[in-house]
């Protein structure tokens, strides 16, 4: 691919705006930077309530909200072949040169990558999460990932820990997996103009209140910190099934005046919440990267986080205090952070983050991966089936059957479109 050649990229995931989260932000900011580099970017996701059809976002980003409704946790119901006609239509209409799928848990991502490979397109996959190996859900998810990545051109992970996890789960050759971290929009996340008073220390938590994000740890940590420090106040932003437990904790320990529950915080208002605090607390039990930490550091907050997944790779040691995902260890980490607060300069921290993380740098590195993917040699169906056969004694045969049916349906669709085109031509 020459420097002057511009790509036409299709981003696919179940997770995109108006839903908010790390994957959604990653796709949006990466797409915006790719557009600024001169490439064409189209996003495909499912419909969100009344948001359906084609929409345009900032910078001319075109988004297809296909008429599929979320089934579970913002994921669409697996159909295997139901999305083939619409994926083919978008690929042909937009003259796509490469398909980029995001998130292992996205049904739409797996189906779109499967159909794209059937049609001969090069595909790239980005994994944003860490998964285990022992529980039933992880075992099934890992098998699905093995199926998808058996025929992927290149893969991207957001941290070195995530890369190790993905390679072990999928059996993908390590040389096909690249590490490109997330970034932060430092122009949006700036510190407060004036330094906050240290008379009252404010600890900010912004997270989905679910088990994986360590909401149960917060239930034990917050009362203990409030008992040890009378001048500490918590601001908790986010919503989820574990919010009830936090509300009960606040009532039980009479902390209504020291723990503010904000509920779901729109992404546009995250900065205003962050700059009202001194310390950002992340209690996740598993995390591949965590963009929230970058946003907090860019706003000048000292971070206290659990030492899980790729979190230790995110910030320098003087910007973060790490703790084991244990209540007592987290309380000790918060003590260390409070003692370190006088040494923190929010403006200097912001300038360092500006140099460390840039979406433009992420976009340039991603284009290099696209270049490698496009250089991969095309393979016929038999060569692809031989790779699926290595996925297991029974799973391999099942994966081959799925791909053969997809291949036949695609050719049937091609023939039907050709016949329809001929029949609709005006007669002389």
Automatic annotation (TrEMBL):
<dbReference type="InterPro" id="IPR039507">
    <property type="entry name" value="PIG-A/GPI3"/>
</dbReference>
<dbReference type="GO" id="GO:0016020">
    <property type="term" value="C:membrane"/>
</dbReference>
<dbReference type="InterPro" id="IPR001296">
    <property type="entry name" value="Glyco_trans_1"/>
</dbReference>
<keyword id="KW-0328">Glycosyltransferase</keyword>
<dbReference type="GO" id="GO:0017176">
    <property type="term" value="F:phosphatidylinositol N-acetylglucosaminyltransferase activity"/>
</dbReference>
<feature type="transmembrane region" description="Helical">
    <location>
        <begin position="394"/>
        <end position="413"/>
    </location>
</feature>
<protein>
    <recommendedName>
        <fullName>phosphatidylinositol N-acetylglucosaminyltransferase</fullName>
        <ecNumber>2.4.1.198</ecNumber>
    </recommendedName>
</protein>
<dbReference type="InterPro" id="IPR013234">
    <property type="entry name" value="PIGA_GPI_anchor_biosynthesis"/>
</dbReference>
<comment type="pathway">
    <text>Glycolipid biosynthesis; glycosylphosphatidylinositol-anchor biosynthesis.</text>
</comment>
<dbReference type="GO" id="GO:0006506">
    <property type="term" value="P:GPI anchor biosynthetic process"/>
</dbReference>
<dbReference type="Pfam" id="PF00534">
    <property type="entry name" value="Glycos_transf_1"/>
</dbReference>
<keyword id="KW-0808">Transferase</keyword>
<keyword id="KW-1133">Transmembrane helix</keyword>
<keyword id="KW-0812">Transmembrane</keyword>
<feature type="domain" description="PIGA GPI anchor biosynthesis">
    <location>
        <begin position="46"/>
        <end position="135"/>
    </location>
</feature>
<keyword id="KW-0472">Membrane</keyword>
<keyword id="KW-0337">GPI-anchor biosynthesis</keyword>
<feature type="domain" description="Glycosyl transferase family 1">
    <location>
        <begin position="193"/>
        <end position="339"/>
    </location>
</feature>
<dbReference type="Pfam" id="PF08288">
    <property type="entry name" value="PIGA"/>
</dbReference>
């Amino acid at each position: 691919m020459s420097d002057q050649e511009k790509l036409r990229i299709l981003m696919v995931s179940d997770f995109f705006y108006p839903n908010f989260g790390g994957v959604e932000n990653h796709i949006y900011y990466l797409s915006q930077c790719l557009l600024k580099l001169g490439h064409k970017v189209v996003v495909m996701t499912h419909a969100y309530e009344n948001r359906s059809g084609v929409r345009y976002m900032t910078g001319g980003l075109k988004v297809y909200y296909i008429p599929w409704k979320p089934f579970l946790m913002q994921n669409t119901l697996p159909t295997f072949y139901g999305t083939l006609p619409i994926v083919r239509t978008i690929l042909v209409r937009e003259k796509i040169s490469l398909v980029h799928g995001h998130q292992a848990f996205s049904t739409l991502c797996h189906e779109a990558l499967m159909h794209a490979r059937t049609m001969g397109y090069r595909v790239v996959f980005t994994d944003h999460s860490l998964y285990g190996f022992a529980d039933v859900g992880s075992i099934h998810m890992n098998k699905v990932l093995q199926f998808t990545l058996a025929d992927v051109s290149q893969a991207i992970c957001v941290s070195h820990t995530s890369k190790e996890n993905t390679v072990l789960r999928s059996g993908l050759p390590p040389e096909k997996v690249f590490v490109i971290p997330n970034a932060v929009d430092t122009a949006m996340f700036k510190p407060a103009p004036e330094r906050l008073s240290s008379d009252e220390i404010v600890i900010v938590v912004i997270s989905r209140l679910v088990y994986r994000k360590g909401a149960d740890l917060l239930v034990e940590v917050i009362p203990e910190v409030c008992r040890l420090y009378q001048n500490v106040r918590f601001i908790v932003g986010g919503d989820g099934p574990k919010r009830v437990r936090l509300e009960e904790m606040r009532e039980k320990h009479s902390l209504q005046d020291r723990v503010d529950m904000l509920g779901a915080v729109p992404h546009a208002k995250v900065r205003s919440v962050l700059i009202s605090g001194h310390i950002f607390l992340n209690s996740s039990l598993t995390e591949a990267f965590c963009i929230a930490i970058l946003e907090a550091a860019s706003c000048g907050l000292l971070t206290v986080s659990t030492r899980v997944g790729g979190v230790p790779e995110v910030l320098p040691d003087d910007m973060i205090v790490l703790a084991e995902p244990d209540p007592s260890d987290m309380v000790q980490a918060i003590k260390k952070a409070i003692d370190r607060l006088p040494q923190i300069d929010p403006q200097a921290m912001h300038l360092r983050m500006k140099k460390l993380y840039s979406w433009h740098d992420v976009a340039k590195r991603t284009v290099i991966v696209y270049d490698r993917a496009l250089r991969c040699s095309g393979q016929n169906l038999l060569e692809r089936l031989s790779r699926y056969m290595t996925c297991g004694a029974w799973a391999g045969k099942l994966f081959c059957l799925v791909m053969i049916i997809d291949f036949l349906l695609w050719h049937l669709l091609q023939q039907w479109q050709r016949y329809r085109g001929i029949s609709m031509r005006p007669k002389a």
